[in-house]
């Protein structure tokens, strides 16, 4: 009962009248409640989408060499299995073109993911009686998605300077284990137990409390269920992609 009253009071607090982009970014990390109250009244999209797009490009550039080596191996083996021969120059030209395309389209990939995930969360939280109003949820999710992008760039920096697997973030539990001993599916599950991913889900739950007016307990339960389902789905896709790539390496 007291939790309900507290959430009601918090959700009805007056949002800051002004908040520049630097304050929004700072509040995302230090005081997300203030940011969410502001978004509730004055949602915006341009700034977080610019940050997400820049982060996507930076990450692709950081892992360029590792990705290029992997693409060379995969492309060579693919054409070999098809009975087709390519000169080294042809192979490198094809892979370089593919790499450039990946860099250019990486912001679009993250933005498409943001749209899909926002729609999924909104559809699910409607059953938890969240308020209507798509723009504020798109804004909320865009700001929250800056968190995993920061994690992505930090892991990209680690891979660029220290080396390591493209599929394993040093900030996840999976970096501490060997997929050959645990199995790919379990490895995929542990990959989602990652600092910035969990941080994002905590903010999803908070966001739907302060932006969507969802009761605290409902928000925690719904967010936890979505996390589990996404983790299982990701683990399944990881297992499938590992099987497909295994035949090409």
Kindly summarize this structure in a few lines.
The chain is mainly α and 249 residues long. Helices cover 77% and strands 0% of the residues.
DSSP strand (E) fraction?
under 5%
What structural class do helix, strand and pairing data support? mainly alpha
Number of domains: 1
Distance between the termini: 58 Å
The count of β-strands is 0
* Portion of residues within helices: over 70%
Query: pLDDT average, as an integer?
Result: 88
Description of the molecule:
The protein is mostly helical and 249 residues long. The protein has one domain (2-246). Helices cover 77% and strands 0% of the residues. It has 12 helices and no strands. It has helices spanning 2-11, 21-30, 32-41, 46-62, 64-81, 88-126, 134-144, 146-162, 179-182, 184-191, 195-210, 216-246. Helix 7 packs antiparallel against helix 11, helix 8 (146-162) packs antiparallel against helix 11 (195-210) and helix 10 (184-191) packs across helix 12 (216-246). The termini are far apart. The relative contact order is 0.13.
């Amino acid at each position: 009962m007291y939790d309900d009253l507290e959430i009601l009071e918090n959700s009805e607090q007056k949002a800051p009248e002004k908040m520049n982009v630097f304050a929004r970014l700072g509040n995302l990390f230090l005081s997300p409640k203030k940011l969410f109250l502001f978004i509730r009244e004055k949602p915006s999209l341009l700034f977080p989408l610019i940050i997400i797009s820049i982060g996507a490009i930076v990450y692709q550039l950081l892992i360029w060499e590792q990705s290029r080596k992997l693409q060379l191996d995969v492309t060579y083996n693919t054409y070999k299995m098809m009975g087709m021969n390519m000169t080294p120059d042809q192979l490198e030209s094809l892979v370089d073109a593919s790499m450039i395309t990946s860099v250019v389209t990486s912001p679009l990939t993250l933005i498409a993911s943001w749209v899909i995930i926002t729609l999924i969360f909104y559809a699910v939280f409607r059953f938890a009686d969240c308020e209507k109003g798509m723009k504020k949820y798109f804004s909320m999710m865009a700001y929250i998605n800056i968190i995993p992008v920061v994690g992505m760039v930090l892991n990209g920096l680690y891979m660029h300077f220290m080396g390591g697997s493209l599929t394993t973030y040093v900030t996840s539990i999976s970096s501490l284990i060997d997929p050959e001993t645990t199995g790919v599916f379990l490895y995929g599950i542990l990959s989602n137990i990652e600092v910035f991913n969990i941080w994002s889900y905590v903010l999803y739950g908070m966001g739907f409390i302060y932006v969507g007016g969802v009761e605290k307990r409902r928000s925690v339960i719904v967010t936890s269920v979505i996390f589990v389902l996404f983790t299982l789905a990701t683990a399944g896709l990881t297992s499938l992609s590992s099987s497909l790539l295994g035949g090409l390496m």
